[in-house]
Specification:
about 425 residues, alpha/beta, D-Maltodextrin-Binding Protein, domain 2, 2 domains, eight-stranded mixed β-sheet, 17 helices, about 10% strand
């Protein structure tokens, strides 16, 4: 039975699905359940047989936490169940489970990007009381405060942080060494490196970026804006900033990369970018960090030992990098019928100190000190990246604005709209959205 009464405000299913579809951070590969770490999961055993259904997509960065929860918290009268699912399937099932008075899932994996609208709509349980109650037992004070902030809305915690993903640059060190190149730190240096690789005849399209027109391209544009010190919307004034000089600079710089990328780049999501690196058809890729460990596995590519890693470049010289920070965590739906305390202890166990350390190098856990420079081939790159990546804004309008401009971003990058036309149309679309807020 539930511990407390619930008030529900429903959000349109299409809005939930669209907002989630923009943040498919590390979806793709899978970490086998046999690698799961056994940790203490010390809930009070319920009197009746209980099944806990967990919704989380399969990825090398998320699976260690999901598998630990299933293995460690299935005991006595409790069975924790997680069915393999891809990111698209998770989007659909999240929409369905949050839409009614009773949901199919009791624990759902969420992202900072969608905490705001779902918390604002009353679909997620605030976790502050449970966090305080179980903090000492599970050493929850060791979770990075910045990541807790990224899973909070209106001063309340709605997601227990599991791990973070930030952009990391992977590059072919053998190709770079052959051409006397070093890891680029700006877009200008990245273009110079790509031109030399092209001129040497090594690769036709050296740069691989996930610019999928229905998803990733919006995230990439926002990363360019962040690197230039701005964002889609000014969080203080709530004014859209698509008509700003920084917006024009971001679009111009993205367009300037096109000669070095596959002409089909706006059909490429992160798995396709990985495939370019696996196949040896690209020498530079920038993706979320949850994708990086896959590149180092011999089973995935003959070039597994040729990859090197660095923080992504800045659009131009400055403090902020071309990067986005996405925080993954566990949330409890308002409409679950199970005991909140039982469920919280399961998610707390899955992000325990031991569980978090064992998730490295596949993931970048939310706990302080879990990732050290020598913990993986890309650990230092991830540490350097997160240090100069703008913290995400958690607000209900963020997914709506992203959804409103995404097709316009793609049309502008592809030259179907001039930069000026694209800016004007994005500004108008965003102003229409923000009028509701």
């Amino acid at each position: 039975m539930r511990n407390r009464p619930r008030n529900r405000v429903l959000l349109g299913a299409a809005a939930i699905a669209a907002s989630m579809a923009l943040v498919g951070c590390g979806a793709g590969s899978r970490t086998g359940a046999e690698t799961a770490t056994q940790v203490a999961c010390d809930f009070e055993n319920p009197a009746q047989p209980t099944t806990v259904n967990v919704l989380a997509y399969n990825s090398s960065a998320v699976d260690p936490f999901t598998n630990t929860m299933v293995k460690s918290c299935t005991r006595d009268n409790v069975t924790v169940k997680h069915d393999p699912i891809d990111f698209a399937g998770q989007v659909q099932k999240t929409t369905a489970t949050l839409a009614g008075d009773k949901g199919t899932y009791d624990i759902i994996e969420t992202y900072g990007f969608i905490i705001g609208p779902n918390a604002d709509a009353g679909k997620l349980q605030p976790l502050d009381e449970l966090f305080a109650k179980h903090s000492e037992k599970y050493k929850l004070d060791q979770i990075e405060p910045s990541m807790r902030e990224g899973m909070s809305y209106d001063g309340k915690l709605y997601g227990l942080p599991m791990q973070a993903q930030m952009f990391v640059m992977a590059y072919r060190k053998d190709v770079f060494d052959k051409n006397g190149l070093t890891a680029p730190t700006t877009f200008a240096e990245m273009k110079d490196a790509a031109k030399k690789i092209q001129d040497a005849g090594d690769m036709k399209y050296p740069i691989a970026l996930p610019w999928l027109a229905t998803g990733d391209i919006s995230t990439q544009y926002q990363a360019a804006l962040n690197s230039l010190g701005t964002d889609f919307v000014d969080p203080e004034t709530k004014e859209p900033q698509f008509d700003s000089p920084e917006s024009k600079k971001a679009l111009d710089e993205m367009i300037s990369l096109l000669p070095y990328m596959d002409p089909q780049v706006t059909t490429f999501d992160q798995p396709k970018v990985q495939q370019q690196m696996y196949n040896g058809t690209a020498a530079i890729a920038i993706m979320f960090s949850g994708r990086m460990n896959d590149l180092t596995l011999q089973t995935n590519s003959q070039y597994y030992d040729k990859f090197a890693f660095a923080a992504p470049p800045a659009v131009e010289e400055g403090d902020s990098l071309f990067s986005r920070l996405s925080i993954d965590g566990w949330s409890l739906p308002e409409n679950t019928q199970l005991d909140s305390d039982l469920l919280f202890q399961m998610i707390a166990a899955s992000v325990s100190e031991e569980a978090s350390k064992s998730a490295v190098p596949a993931a970048y856990p939310a706990r302080k000190g879990a990732v050290t420079p020598d913990s993986s081939p890309y650990a230092q790159a991830a540490i350097d990246s997160i240090a100069k990546t703008e913290a995400p804004v958690t607000a209900p309008y963020v997914p709506d604005v992203s959804n409103a401009v995404i097709s316009l971003v793609a049309q502008t990058i592809l030259g179907k709209l001039s930069v000026e036309e694209g800016q004007a149309q994005m500004q108008a679309a965003a102003e229409k959205v923000m009028a509701k807020y």
